[in-house]
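Fold this complex.
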Amino acid sequence: MKQITIVCSSGLGTSLMVKILLSKMLREWGLQANVSNTDQSSIKSETPDLVIGAKQIIASIDLGGTIECIGLENLVDPQHLREKLQNSPTFLKWLNELKEGKYESNTTT
Amino acid sequence: MLTVRQQKMVHQLIEKGDYIRVEDFKEEFHISDRTVRHDLLLLEGWLAPFHVQLERNRKYGVRIVLSDQHNTNLSEILQKQPEFKDHKERVKVIKKLLLEDSIINVVDLQEEMAVSKNTLSQDIQIVRDWLHVKQLDLVRKKGLIELVGDEHGVRRAYLELLREEFSEQKIFQLLIREESALLTPWEKWFPLEEIFELCDVLQMLEKRLDIQFSDTGFSALTLHLLMAVQRLKDGHLIKMDEQLLNELKNLPEFAIIKDTIESNLFDIFQIDTPEQEIGYITQHVLGAQRNHEYVQEDAFYIKFSKNIVSKMEDWLHHPLVEREKVIQGLAIHLKPAFYRAKYHLQSENPLLNQLEMMYGPIIDRLEEEMNQLVSPMGITFDRHEISYIALHICSGLDQKVIPLKKRVAVVCSSGLGTSALLERKITMLYPQVNIVRKYSYMELNSISTLEVDLLLSTIEIPLMLPVPVVYVSPLLPKEDQKKLIPYIGEPRNPLQEEGKLVQVVKDVLTIFQRHSTVQNEARIRTDLLEYFQGQNGKQEKKRLTEFLSPEAILLQEDISDWKLSVLKGNELLTKMNCTDSRFGEALLEMAEQPTTHFVIADGVAFPHGGSDRHVYQTGFSLITLKNEIIFGGTKRKVWFIITLAAVNQHQHTHALATLIDCLADQEFMEYVRRADNPDEVWHKLLEKEAMEG
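Structure:
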């Protein structure tokens, strides 16, 4: 299962908001992924495929550069999130895989 | 109203037009000095409204002086008396006359009652049936009716008649000289002074015998003495079985009772009390229930009581709770109970039916065991007495108290809004309460105690309902919470309860750690806390309006400093018992950090945090500002400040989804920008939730 982690300073406010928005969108697109929200101190112990968060947070975390991190300016605007995702290489790759029937929802690659 | 005797006295005084001596009245009516004086006092009061004076003279007695005008007035009124008695009243009077005098003249009776012969016959028949049950008979001969039966039966019947008229409670009230009791028509039976005199005698007797009767015992004895005095005054012959009397005479109590009663009754009523009557009084004294604290232990009854308790325990297969106390109480009860059984003084237990229903099998068993033990002594306990004894045994049954949740219903006339708010308030403050349902005004007719223990309403209900109603404000302020205490108790103190739970969680965690390696301590701690709070996941569905009450909404505030707005937001949460003031400071600290992003959209700040010591339950507060202000170091302007304190990461998910919807809804946001009524905003939110379904 693809792992998307949403990060914020506390792990219970904004990240949860984004999680709610994102889960809705994933359903629209038919993408299956595990979405979790967490605070910035716990993020280092996780190995997500994609990280989303407010841009200040994204700027402050360092995950070694291998994982794509999306920074948001507006955390409650669905349109903003949609645009950001549609510009994300990782996300576009998933959408392509889905189109070609190669999207593997049950294994972590 | 005057009694027949008092009416006769008035008649005589009017007819004679001169003094009549107190002695004459005494002789004529067989009453004491005291009673005459009492009657005269009453007459004086009765005459006053007619401006008629009762003149007293030490030597000659009393007289009434009347003008002609007075005379006709009074005569008219007296002719109207006696007032017609209803059927019940008549039967009672006939019973009383018969039991006191044994023989009555039917013609006199008919005249006194002012009823037809036929009606009187019917009344007499009812009396006959009543007497029959008590093994007494009524014989009619030559215009007379006579009561036939043994002494014991007559006494029983008389006492029963008294009990019908004077309930135990009435006597209690009388004994403490309660105003309302003094107004009841004792006079028809006994002058109040006589009753008080007899009470004094009884108290003297208590002192001399060194016992203290229970209230019930005392009132039973009072009635008994009243009966004795009444019958002795009427010159009744008191009969008692010779052998029984001799047996009683040998008891130490007999002499004391004889000494006390004889002299006092003579002083007060000028009557001689025969030994037989002393015998009966002795029986009643022995059979009277005593006050527990003042009873000396009696080895025989303690032993008997122990025996019974053991037998019952064997049968129940478990020991009684507070066994020693049960034995003690039972022993005290048993002593007079034995006498009651012996002298056939057992009386009805008004609770018998109820007890049979609740403890039928225990009473059955007890009856068997008890009577097996006492039958060699020649006595039997009847079902009424056994049921009293069963009470003692039952007091030792282990009764686990199951804290039943109180069922509360709410009256909801609109279908939305106020009742929802009230409901939320109640569930938050009173975990001991279940909101069972909402009633519309129209449905209230069907409300029943089977479903609901308490009804809360914000509107007046002019109906008589079987369920208590408490009127409250939907915000349930402190005054209203006080009103609810008698019904559902104190509201919970979240701070205190949380503290207890945290300790429990800590202890449980320590046990885990002793036997296993705990990998994610913080997570277990949170989950356990939620579990003990009864919020095991199921509360994720909680709505925004449940977390954000109208009391936590402040609109059109005039605040220019963003820090103040954050502190204000927390102040509202603290008011709702969600946080303490330190949480506000924590929010400010967070806001100062560069990574924090409290401004989540244009115009919207969302200070939030949780899971720390300063958050006690999840809650939101909302402030809107009259003028936009710069929030923190972000340089972004806000006017909408929604603050969240969360106890965990998922309980408020549903509420956040609603919030997101609201923030994305331009129309709604424009509305809130202008709104100045918190209740209205709250209702709007409720409507939005309703649309989500």
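The mean pLDDT of chain B is 80.
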